[in-house]
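Q: I'm writing up a methods section and want to include an example of the input and output format. Could you take the sequence below and give the corresponding predicted structure tokens, formatted cleanly so I can copy it straight into the document?
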Amino acid sequence: MKSKKTLHVAWCAIDPKSIEKVLPLLCEIGVEKISFISCDRGQKNFKIDFKRFNRIIEVSMQQSGRNSFLEFDMYKSIKDFIEEFPKTKVFDFCDTTLENSSDFETVLIGCEGGFSADEKNSCQV
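A: Here is the clean output for your methods example:
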């Protein structure tokens, strides 16, 4: 089973245990790719274990009927990510809302403390 629309989620790195809890759901709803980003206010003391994430996704695929693996990658900064994916919609949990007709393929989700001033400048949040 393949989703009709693609979705690429960029996610400021957080505790891997929290990521592991959400991975099966993201797999089930058809997310194509997750890019983890080292953010200024993100948690830097954790190492992302893609092999473990792939094992979690494999089990989720068997349960949900999905037949394509979710891809993972890592970026050193928001600026690097935005340069590669300039059409990204950034979720900074501010007053700006998306319209019902908004159409996008890539989203960037900020970390708990929000984006730093430099990161906001990088992606014009």
